Amino acid sequence: MDERPEAELMSIPATPRASTPEILTPSGQRSPRPASNPKSTAWTPTSLISPRFLSPIGTPMKRVLVNMKGYLEEVGHLTKLNPQDAWLPITESRNGNAHYAAFHNLNAGVGFQALLLPVAFAFLGWSWGIICLTIAYFWQLYTLWILVQLHEAVPGRRYNRYVELAQAAFGERLGVWLALFPTVYLSAGTATALILIGGETMKLFFQIVCGPLCSSNPLSTVEWYLVFTSLCIVLSQLPNLNSIAGLSLIGAITAIFYSTMVWVLSVSQPRPPTISYEPLKSPSFSASVFSVLNALGIIAFAFRGHNLALEIQATMPSTFKHPAHVPMWRGAKVAYFFIAMCLFPVAIGGFWAYGNLMPPGGILNALYRFHSHDIPRGLLATTFLLVVFNCLSSFQIYSMPVFDSFEAGYTSRTNRPCSIWVRSGFRVFYGFISFFIGVALPFLSSLAGLLGGLTLPVTFAYPCFMWVLIKKPPKYSFNWYVNWTLGILGIAFSLAFCVGGVWSMVTNGLKLKFFKPN
Question: Origin, by domain of life (predicted)?
Fold first, then answer.
């Protein structure tokens, strides 16, 4: 009990509500107030401040007590935010909600890799193809739930990036070594592959629309890459992750539409007369094993976006009463329902329409090869245009972690936010670097099996290990066994899929289409 005179106590100013400084960012937004994290059912000083207690009290006193209740609920549960986060694209704005989470997750989860699923079915057949795709879907849905829960697993801390969570689980140095390469590749490598897919699709769209009226000197493939890259750079000037929610919505809608159109158009056309649903045979047993592993790697590559889950959740406000994991998981469930509605029909419908005649480029190439003269030109052109729009939108969300890394390095050195010109310079530089990599390595988008193996731990293995190391479930409990088993299987599959992907490259004689003038 404080024994100081009452007059002295009354003269002490009230403690202001805790918050981070509101720092003006280049986009004109302000840094968020820190959020609170853990749930508690224990008695608190606010337990007596209930509506029944407040009912006989006059309005002014009631307002004071309600404000005091809100303050007491947050004191002791404040998340310590790094002031530098207010300057970075991922955490600059924390006005996200469940709708934004659904848009971002759907845009990141459906893309060109879904069009390759019928290629995997050509090696696995009906039964094993459907079984493997179903297991992979629910496995990655479980690991996504783990990442959402671990975002605020430690009281007073929000893990806003995948690498930060890996460092908390595996240690500062080991976490960087394990998580940095696959997450950087999933961001930068996917952006480069999107330039290749988007540029080639723009070229096909132009050929379909223009037809025989095209000029005698059409743009080359590399020039179409440059056109697509320029469009990406213009759109990348949007300042932060929340600001591209509209683009993610466009990407999500176009992904649903073109995924539906490609399998509906394929199924509605007559099947090739020599079609067969027997798995493609290899000359030897070892070759068959490696082909199957490569097909499983393609399925693993179809599920991406886990490297962005924590970043998407970081854009949401979080308080003691309203933690960020609630709207994030609500939006993720909606997104992954639509992802399933896209992936499974494309895989099953594409394999039904083309069987083991499916070309290595996927169902879009098969549609153009077998039915370009049977389908109305307008429908075919619309499908390709939707693919272009989706690639433009996906480029933005997959590039945002790279932009964030560039600006984090700049702000840590200068201790000030990036100006508009510096921010624009980083994004122009990154766009053209991705373009030059795409021109030098035009086969990058065809390495789905190998790349699925390299990045598989981010989606299927690391989250399980993180749960055990951070949440520490009772040793030898069911939860402990499940997560260790899934994590070890994920690492084993990663190594096996990498071997299968390399073998597929070597045996098929990877064609390096370095530079074609036309």
Answer: Eukaryota
Residues in contact with 106: Cβ distance below 8 Å, sequence separation at least 6, in sequence order:
248, 251, 252, 255, 256, 334, 335, 338, 339
By mean pLDDT, which of 65-74, 79-88, 318-327 is the weakest? Answer: 65-74
What's the pLDDT tens digit per position in 388-408?
999 999 999 999 999 999 999
Q: How far is CA 48 from the centre of its chain?
A: 44
Residue carrying structure tokens 């990141």: 108
Backbone angles phi, psi at 36, to 5 degrees: -105, 160
DSSP-assigned beta bridge partners for residue 30: 24
Block residue for tokens 């030109």:
377
CA distance 360 to 123: 11
Select from 97, 508, 472, 133 the least CA-distant residue to 312: 97
Q: What is the residue-wise DSSP string for 347-401?
A: HHHHHHHHGGG--TT-HHHHHHHHHTTTS-HHHHHHHHHHHHHHHHHHHHHHHHH
CA–CA gap between residue 244 and residue 246 (Å, rounded): 5
CB distance 167 to 180 below 8 Å: no
> Are residues 27 and 65 in contact, defined by beta-carbon separation less than 8 angstroms?
no
What's the length of the chain?
A: 518
- In tens, the pLDDT along 416-460 reads 888 899 999 999 999 999 899 888 876 654 565 666 677 789 999
Residue 427, CA distances (Å) to 236, 249, 431 in order: 7, 22, 6
Q: How many CB atoms lie within 10 A of CB 503?
A: 19
CB 448 within 8 A of CB 297: yes
Closest CA to 314 of 503, 501, 72, 96: 96
What residues pair up with 101 in beta bridges, in sequence order? none
319-320-322-326 Cα dihedral, nearest 10 degrees:
100
Return the exposure string of 329-341: e unless at least 16 CB atoms fall within 10 Å of the residue's CB, then b.
bebbbbbbebbbe
- Sign of the four-CA dihedral 204, 208, 212, 218: negative
When pLDDT is cut at 50, 70 and 90, the band that residue 280 belongs to is confident
| Percent helix, strand and coil across the chain, each to the nearest 5 | 70, 0, 30
Cα 234 to Cα 152, 200, 432, distances in angstroms: 34, 19, 12
